[in-house]
Amino acid sequence: MPALKSAQSLDKLNGRTVLVDMDNTIVDWDAEFIRRYAAACGRDPQEVEKIVRNRAKFEIEENFPEAERAKVLETVASPGLYESLKPLPGAVEALQALVAEGVDVKLVTAPHPTCAGTCALEKYLSVEQIFGTAFQERLIITRDKTQVQGDILIDDKPKISGCKPCPWKHVLFSQSYNQDVQGKVRLSSWTAWRDVLPRAF
Amino acid sequence: MPALKSAQSLDKLNGRTVLVDMDNTIVDWDAEFIRRYAAACGRDPQEVEKIVRNRAKFEIEENFPEAERAKVLETVASPGLYESLKPLPGAVEALQALVAEGVDVKLVTAPHPTCAGTCALEKYLSVEQIFGTAFQERLIITRDKTQVQGDILIDDKPKISGCKPCPWKHVLFSQSYNQDVQGKVRLSSWTAWRDVLPRAF
């Protein structure tokens, strides 16, 4: 009876707080960066895609030669990048279903230090476009995620540190730069949330 | 030995997390609203000041007749308001001294729902102007302050509610609309922080 089993598992979620990162967890940050960086440098987008999608390091600029890093950071801070991000497959449906299950869903995101203010503005606009105005209330913008209370945090960042011991359990959203992390519950696609998330508690 | 006593009290602060609201706690939101609302309506600023500075209700629009509320909210959302706010006396010195004492100071602020995105942008610009770029890392933007971990929250709002039980102790920053609140440690001026804050723990 897989339907019944699934319903029982989802009961575990009701009343919980699920924090969710945005860039490369909910929205495809890489896709927009690849498009913009290739255009800015006059390079083949497929060549840039190969570097970005297979990168070993979380911080984007660390995957490029020293001479290119200023241009990389300039692209990160280019107006409209954070407003143009498209959702990853299944992400919107998953978060809406979680809300319908009685879950306190919050989007917890750190603004990039090169453009903190405009990044914050664009994140509000992006949430409005993707989820509707009411969802803006669920947005928490902070550089330190360890200060935000919750049961789990779904995030692609390999290691999340800050001022406090982590109050939540880190569910790792799979990306190339976190493949070697062991011992964490891993969400490889939003379509798998019903199976993966109840196991995280 | 008042100097020694004061030093001993301040020891209590080291390593603590002090969350601080912005509008009407760190910056004089009322002053800029009064200026803009009087200009928008062609009214005497002193007349508007009397209403605003003596108001009984926290939400600004609730202190004006029904017919004026749309204009009030339009003023709240007017571009540049949150970027123009000036610090309250002693606020900057107090927060810098707290940081020097080894306190984890975070600014925790809710964007106004009429202008959430631009409000967030302007709050980053405002923090940069008032405290310098490095302080932007201390900004946490959230509608729900009960999800932010800390030892105390200094805030002018009479009652702070959200999804969680409050994890911090609420120190009330005095304003006209919170005069009747009993049973909370009260900070009436930033110049008094050395005496008041150690008593809050």
What is the gist of this entry?
The structure is a homodimer of 201-residue chains. With 201 residues, the first copy, chain A, is of the alpha/beta class.
Q: What is the CATH superfamily of the largest domain in chain A?
A: HAD superfamily/HAD-like
Number of helices of chain A: 7
The CATH topology of the largest domain in chain A is Rossmann fold
- Total domain count of chain A: 2
CATH architecture designation of the largest domain in chain A? 3-Layer(aba) Sandwich
Residue windows where pLDDT falls under 50 for at least 5 positions of chain A: none
CATH domain class name of the largest domain in chain A: Alpha Beta
Helical content band of chain A:
25-40%
Biggest sheet record of chain A: 6 strands, parallel
DSSP E strands of chain A, number: 6
Terminal CA distance of chain A: 22 Å
pLDDT averaged over residues of chain A? 95
How large a portion of the residues of chain A is in β-strands, by DSSP E? 5-15%
Give the helix/strand layout:
2 copies of one chain form a homodimer.
Chain A: H1 2-11, E1 17-20, H2 29-41, H3 45-53, H4 69-76, H5 91-100, E2 104-109, H6 116-131, E3 139-141, E4 152-155, E5 169-173, E6 186-187, H7 193-196
Parallel strand pairs in A: 1-2, 1-4, 2-3, 4-5, 5-6
Helix pairs in contact in A: 2-3, 2-4
